[in-house]
Design a protein that fits this description.
The chain is mostly helical. It has 25 helices and 7 strands. The strands form 2 sheets. The protein has a 5-stranded parallel β-sheet, sandwiched between helices. A two-stranded antiparallel sheet has the order 5-7.
Length: about 600
Amino acid sequence: MKHRREIDGLRTVAVLPVLLSHAGLSLFAGGFVGVDIFFVISGYLITGIIVSELDEQRFSILRFYERRTRRLLPALFVVMAACLIAGWFLMSADAYQNLGQSVVATTLFSNNILLTITSGYWDMESQFKPLLHTWSLGVEEQYYIVVPLLLAGVHRYSRRHVPLAFAAIGVVSFALCLWSIRAHPVGNFYLLHTRAWELAAGGWAATIRSPESQRGSGTLSLLGLLMIAAAVFTLSEGSPSPSPAMLLPVAGTTLILLYCRAGLVHRLLSSAPMVGIGLISYSTYLWHQPLFAFLRIASSNPPAIWQFVALIPVALALAWVSWRFVERPFRSRSMRFRTIAAVLAPSAFALLVLGAALHLRGGLPQRFDVAPDADRPATYKAYNMRVLEMKVDRFPPGARQRALVLGNSTGRDFVNMIREANALPGYAIVYRDDLDLCEGQRLSAGKRALVTAATLVVLVYDHKPRQTCDGRQLAGDPDLHGKIVFIGPKDFGTNLNPYARLPLNERAAARVQLSNQAFAASRLYRAITPAGLYVDVIAALSPDGRHMPIFDSQGRILSEDRVHVTRAGARFVGARVFRQPAWQQIIARDAERLD
């Protein structure tokens, strides 16, 4: 397949918006469509190569995978090794364990599957994942496990039906995408079956007869570039992807691939700066996410946008070095594949072993000082979830004091505080995460009976500001009057990775700034709740209401994920919360009613 300089320039159009979008520049909020553009380009180039070799009866599946190996693995392995080294010094145990999982999955081209499986309430925030972006490599390589064989079969049967095969793949995949937007939004983003239509669009463009006339080609290629620009500048960061809106950049890219043979857009994309960045676009894409992620990991507060923008030249410089000294030598035919295999095979094995070891060894917490009697990293999840054993439909018979605790996982945190501090001796406790007092008379008879039977109702607010009913109205409800207490939100900053390196003797004095999100939640919930019934967790932990402790007096961390408490955190926070006047008054009032 003849090399086209304008496609190198098109890669620049794809990669720069991704960098600017991930740097947080609102003008380029839709820059994530650069990944969709890459998919179309990849589908076009790879399919074009396969079809031309099939036409000449020289296609070899082994040679195809050799080319993919030369193209993708060397630079990818270098980036993963760099992430492991940086993670050793900068990541907490929980984060380093997560990186180990990503290294294994990325080496096996299945990080998109891992992210689909693990994405959820307990998953680490994506912005702290250095290898998050390798999900797209997983999609591509899974696509190219199947498509070359399918293409060879269709080509052998009928060459003229090859474009129809890609059109069929595209239609089926797009239909699955439309269904998955609501039904499975996470899988819709990460998995092959809802992304294949973008690769198939490029494949289709590569298999139809190229336009013989140049009439109108300049206009159509300009239209394609404008369609891409419209997507970059008009789509918002939270736009579903893929979705019908992605037809804009996908169709625009397809128009450029088909018609950009001359004219203004051709000259622009074929210019030296555009081609130069396009040649290093793969390495640029590989390096930018680790740089951005480790900047966040190394910062106790969210970095400023200018810091991310300042890293873009660094990403380009690293990309050039990677392209010049890794990509080019390994892609050169002067390097025999036997030599390449001798380097890459043990490298892949080492990455798999190291990644698995990090996962199994809990992120190697012994890299830093380990506090006495500290729980193993990530066990806070099971510690929180064990409270679900208390999610029952009724109190045990004969219990005189009956506490009903309501809330999501932060409600389970509070139950653990009660247990660790023995704050409700003699109480039967029921926990429910599915009983919304705001439903009022719409509550089912069973839930209403549970509320009526309780002598103490504890409503635990979330750490995020959410729409909820007025706490003053709830306090006046006949079934809740005199027995409800409201527990305020909490969190422990935006990033705790830097504090993992603190020596034990410095940890008790360490403080982190409360996140803006938790501060806004606290302000909202205080405003809608009677002051005498509000237990202010943040005030119990922070004299100034903005700086939160991170460790207890022994150096044990209070929260690994910045929201949910560890066992040590439950003891530490509970000991302070249960001294709050609102809590003591409601407990005293409950005791008086029973006397």
